[in-house]
Structures are given as C-alpha cells and as structure tokens.
Amino acid sequence: MKTYIKLIRITTLLLISCAFTFKIAAQQPQIKKRIAVFVFEDKTDRSWRWWNNKGVGNGVSDMLTTALVKSGNYRVIERQELDRILNEQDFGQSGRITPQSAAKVGQVLGVELAVMGSVSEFGYKKGETGGAIKGLGIGVSNQAATVGIDVRMVNTSTGEIVTAENVRKKKSAKGIKLRTNKLNFKDRKDFDESLVGKAAREAIEDIVSLIDNSANEIPWQAKVIIEKSGVVFINSGEADGLKAGDSFAVYSKGDDLIDPDTGISLGSVDTKIGEIKITDASIGNGKASKCSIVQGSGFTKGNFVRLK
C-alpha cells in the first residue's frame, strides 16, 4: 500500500513538473532565426550548368535557400537584398566572402547566422559511366554521381565560425544506361531525376540539419528602430514568429570585448534599460513591430531587443 501511495505521489509530481515546463515553453515566443545564404564558391571544373544557366555555386545556394524557407523555421534574407548590401559595402567586387565580411554584412541585414561555403565536387566520376559511342555514353556497370560541399556557419555578432563541415554524397545506379555528354539540365524535373540531382538534394538536407543545430546555439536578437512618444518600433515582427503580447528586454550596447589574439568579438557589456511589449507585429509586412513601454526609458536606435 505504501509503495502504491509513493508511486502516485511521484506520478503527480512528474505531471506537475511537465505542466509547468509546458507553460513556460508556451510563454516563450516561437521566434524564427534570420539567416543569410551567400552564393557558394564553385571549385569544380565549372562545366556543369543549372537549367536556368546558373553555375553550380549559385544553384546549390538556391537549393539551400529554398529548403530553409520551406522548413518554416527561418526568415531567409532575399538574394536581391543580400546582393544590394554586398555591392554597397564593396564586398561583391572581390567575388570572395570571408567569415569577417559575412559577419559585417549579416549585421547590416540584422541576421543571426550567415551561411557560406564552396562546392568541391559535382558530377559523375571518370571511369564509372562506361565508354562513348558517337556522342552517347553507355554505362555497363555502375553509374555514380558525387556531390561535395564545404559549408561554414558564421555567428554574425562575433564573426566566429560556429560550424564547419564537409558534406559529401554519392548516388549510383546499376545497369545499362545511355547518357549524352551534355553537362546541363533542360529543366528542374530533369535535374531532380538525375543521379547528381539526387545526391545534391541529400547534401542539402544534411546542411539544413547542421544549420538547425547551429541556430539553436545562437541567441535571437532584434534592434530598436526608433522610439517616439512612448512607442517603440523594432526590426522584427510576425514574419519572424512574433505576435502581439510578446514581451522583451531592451539593452543599450556597451564596449566591445575584442580578443587581442584572434581579433574576434567576445560580445559586449550591455546594460538593461527597460522592457517592451508588442502591440502590433504586422508593421512593414511583418518585418517590424510596434511596442508599448512596460518599464524604463531612454530607448534609442540600435538598442538590443532580447528575450527576457
């Protein structure tokens, strides 16, 4: 009998604990992290072309952007906006993006995570697709396609590379197959049904998983746009998952703490100056919010907005 009563008590405590956890989770805004995907560098022989005549680096970046948007977990900066900032900051002239320049562009765009990388392998391996007869290839054994992508995720607040991985996928098919020597695709369906297209899709899925893990380690942050007559506007809204009633803490930025050895930002000593609550999260097509001041004063452009 005592054992039974003890079991009931333990079960009750567990249920109360779970209910409390769920309540806390429900109170926290389900915020989408903001991400910028830079065009990947093409380190292949540049013989492959997408169906829209883009190169492999552009094509892989577009695939990744589409996958992130479809996941519903992120707000991905549009390529046109990214290119505009690159040109304005003169980073687009060199054709190469470094973690430091990616972080600077990311800060201008207000994103937490920048994704960059290169395509090192893309296509069919030599000797694996058989011989050639008058412009046609005959694969008698295995036809294999390989896609290799080096990817890096950069914390835009610090410029630090938080994840660096090589993702390599190989797809093969057995049997006699005919192929042309064309190294491009007539349309998306042609690409998706090809071995190299399937290998690329699997590589992108792995990269999205890596991004999920990296994004969880980087705190969300928005900024104050302006404070006017007791109303604060911030650069995040329902497009990021925010809604009316969500409350946040506001901080004024302190001195940057720069590592003297690496030059990497270690953050800053920020001061909490108040709290705000969203009254309208639909400003600017959901990319900004109107907030009331719960407590504090002295809110100015550039103040950090963070979860309480």
UniProtKB/TrEMBL annotation:
GO terms for cellular component: outer membrane-bounded periplasmic space. Residues 1-25 form the signal peptide. InterPro entries: Curli_assmbl/transp-comp_CsgG. The keyword Membrane applies. It holds the Pfam family CsgG. The keyword Signal applies. It comes from the Bacteria. Keywords: Cell membrane, Lipoprotein, Membrane, Palmitate, Signal. This is Penicillin-binding protein activator LpoB. It comes from Ancylomarina longa.
